[in-house]
Amino acid sequence: MFWITEQWGGGIYCVKSWLDGETLSDRLPGLNILEQYQYGKQAAKLLKKINSIPLSEYLLPNITGYYENELTDPYDESTSVNEAKKVLVRFLRERKLLERTQKSDIRPQTFLFGDFHSFNIIVKNTANTNNDWENLALCDLETCHWGDVWTEFANIMRSEPRRFAYVSGLVHGYFDGEPPCEFWQKNAFDTATLSLFVENRDNVDFICTKHVARVLSSYANFSEADTPYWYLPLSKVKDEEFMTFLSQIHRIYFARQTGFCRESFYQGFEPLHIYGLRGTRYRFNRYGLERYLSKEHSVLDIACNCGFMSLYTSYHVKRVLGVEIDKSLVEIARTTAEYLSVDNCEFTCCDFNLFKTDEKFDFIYSFAAHHWIGMAMDEYGQALAKLLKPGGMVLLESHLVRDSEAADKFQKIIDEFSHETFVEIGEGDMDDYLSYPRKFKILKLL
To answer: Which of 134, 160, 374, 435 supports an S-S bond with 129, CB 3.0-4.6 Å?
Structure first.
């Protein structure tokens, strides 16, 4: 069967064979964590089969080395016009692995799929087995590659962090357990390289930009470790209590019928390997909050989402109160606090406009919450001033700042908020999601 389409760059397409089923990417969201993990282990068998295809002299001239034709000297930081690209370039240059990775004798060169992700895996409709994960097949094998077998994982890590249990199962299944440390070092380099290639392309589309942001978030801008924080070590997978907790909060989150960011958690929580668009530990450090907080402080977290920033903060202060209007997110926050045995962090389900308390706080978090609260900024400033102790502080974060106009708008918001009630004592750029930069200000009550 042939057809002509203008999608995907246009052209003539044909169906060579038909697999009755659905893509694994469509199947995974409806599964629990352990089921996703099992699919990953089964998918590893497919990847091993692909990588075991021998490279014959007849085949070699017709295929290309992975990245060989796609990356052309992208390592010049002076040409970087994008902050995301600068981070990637800096990491790659510091590693000084470019020359080494171009050598072909590091590991045996193998046949590579080159685009091995859940969108190209089919769960076949068959009654031959009791477990669907045993009925997997590959599709879209259009471009052949050869190269280092570990390179295959770069595209997986770049595009699949939301399916972290599946990817963790894939890694464990491929290596029959934990991979060697050298794998993570090589994988971090390859993932950064592939992401840089995406940033270098002309007319980078929205989806590719999102991939780059996910990579930088997963690896904390390559500033902390070579392993993405959402990877589940084998020891965690074998921890029944942990996996039960993880399955529970994911079930609650993805059962929501309303709210933004429903494809993945908005907040990530590195200590518990929970993937989210914004890593909590990285943000906490980037805000420089340890300079302002003490063990005697109390903190109010407005629109606290899943409460991960509140919980992380609880280790640095005396008490935290999180306020959130979404009851499902509050349930996740309370469940996580219970799992961690955190007893100085409380969560209340409430519209902030209706929030009432006699308690006074030393510090208030308002992470882009002002837009959702709906108050005029001067009114919002006065409301927060009444909740603070003398000399108390507020961290006010912007929404997306894509240009100077948005930056000026945020400064206007700060001016209206302060209204001779607050003074700025700190500021910075939040680059945890570099394709979508933000600004923040720390204000002190006069």
So the answer is: 134
